[in-house]
Amino acid sequence: MRDCANGELRDLLPDWVHGRLDADRARQVATHVACCSDCVEEVALLRDLAASLTAAAPRVDIAAIVAALPKPPRARPRVIELRWYQRTQVRAAAVLLFMAGATTMAVINRTPSTAGDLPMPAAIGFAGGVSDLSEGDLQSLLKEMEKLDATPSAEPEGGTAISVELAEGGT
Amino acid sequence: MAPADPRDDPALDAALIARWLEGDERAASELVARHAPAVARFVSSLGMRVDVDEVVQDTFVRAFGAIESFRSDAALRTWLFTIARRLVLDRRRSLKRRGTEVEVQEDDAATPDDPLSSLVAQEMEDRLKAAVTRLTPMQREVFTLRVTEGMGYKEIADVVGSTEGAARVHYHHAMRSVKEFLDA
Ligand SMILES: [Zn+2]
Of B99, B3, B79, B95, which is closest to residue B35 (Cα–Cα)? Predict the structure, then answer.
């Protein structure tokens, strides 16, 4: 087997066999190979070698490899620090809830009961100044508001599905 | 014109890596399926006869463990080969330290699932393998990367820790040696 005298072109034969040349280069090589018996032989040899070396390689168990891989890093939950006006909104919502609860209590207390003492709903047991709300209280209120936000709407979703994790010390 | 090689799609690799980083584990299966057979071929070409599957698995475990450090401008396959090569060299060193014979690929016997069935084809295939086996370790490594993977000299140099020019010289010496063996 002889080496083609066109060394530069011969150097490209493996790239050509593997389709790694751009269109112009590939055309140039194809034109040369079509009329060069040395390159025809070398291309055949390259293909035979690739086939034989590929066949000789051991099979791999894809599933076993995948099972051994580390878990992908999950997207961390977004941490939203409430700004002062957001806190104000949450407190305002708390005031409304508190007032609604108090009104309900007043109504219940004024209504003559025939069924004895009604158990006091836990939500109404809330007492103390609204401004004293802890982060935990704010968080549960915010979750309640999210539930309301999550109700189906005709409007397209625009970021209402908030994954909230209150930042520490956000008072 | 030869068909474009579908394995050569850095954009697809980058997209699969991004999907995996976002938690999509199926992307990992696709990446492994795309590259594991080539990594196994490469590991075999380095002279590994046993534990090839173990080295291939370790390669992917390491790669995925450090995938955030992978530069997307480089080819994923080149990076995987670099990791696999390091693992093979580490194994060799540790085997040598323990005084165990280093496994070197000799003329491989035909495997049961050999795709070539006729005796003549088998004989030809054995001769081709023997021709490659006779090469020096560096020549065989460079030659295999060029012939079976179609890698360019720059990529080969990155994998074997050499220069582009040296990789070209190794390839052409190897090709000459293979032709001489087959002509004899
Ligand atoms: Zn030619």
Answer: B79
Q: Please enumerate residues of A whose Cβ is less than 8 A from a Cβ of B.
A: 1, 3, 11, 14-21, 23, 26-27, 30, 42, 45-46, 48-66, 68-75
In chain A, % of residues over pLDDT 70: 43
Which helix or strand (DSSP H or E) is residue B181 part of? helix B164-183
Mean pLDDT of A83-104: 60
Residue A93 belongs to domain spanning: 84-110+117-147
> Within a domain: residue A159?
no
**Maximum distance among all Cα pairs of chain B, rounded to whole angstroms:** 56
Does residue A79 fall inside a structural domain? no
Give per-residue pLDDT as tens, A36-61.
999 999 999 999 999 888 887 788 99
Question: Is A106 within the bounds of a domain?
Answer: yes
Domain boundaries, chain B: 1-103, 108-184
Please state the rounded mean pLDDT for residues B88-114.
62
| Chain A residues near residue B156 by CB distance under 8 angstroms | none
State the fold for domain B1-103.
Rna Polymerase Sigma Factor; Chain: A (1.10.1740)
Taking 60 as the threshold, does the pLDDT of residue A123 lie above it?
no
A13 DSSP assignment: H
From A16's Cα to the closest Cα of chain B, the distance in A is 6
Topology annotation, domain B108-184: Arc Repressor Mutant, subunit A (1.10.10)
Count CB-CB contacts under 10 A for residue A82: 19
Domain identity same for A88 and A51: no
Distance A22 CA to ligand 1 centre (A): 19
φ, ψ of residue A15 in degrees (nearest 5): -65, -40
Looking at the DSSP bridge assignments, the partners of residue A166 are A80
- B120 to chain A, closest Cα gap in Å: 13
Instruction: Answer yes or no: do B178 and A62 touch at CB < 8 A.
Output: no
Which has the higher per-residue pLDDT, B154 or A149? B154
* Domain containing residue A26: CATH number: 1.10.10
What residues of chain B lie within 8 A of the CB of A69, using their CB? 28, 32, 60-61, 64
Better pLDDT: A28 or B9: A28
Q: Which pLDDT belongs to residue B56?
A: 96
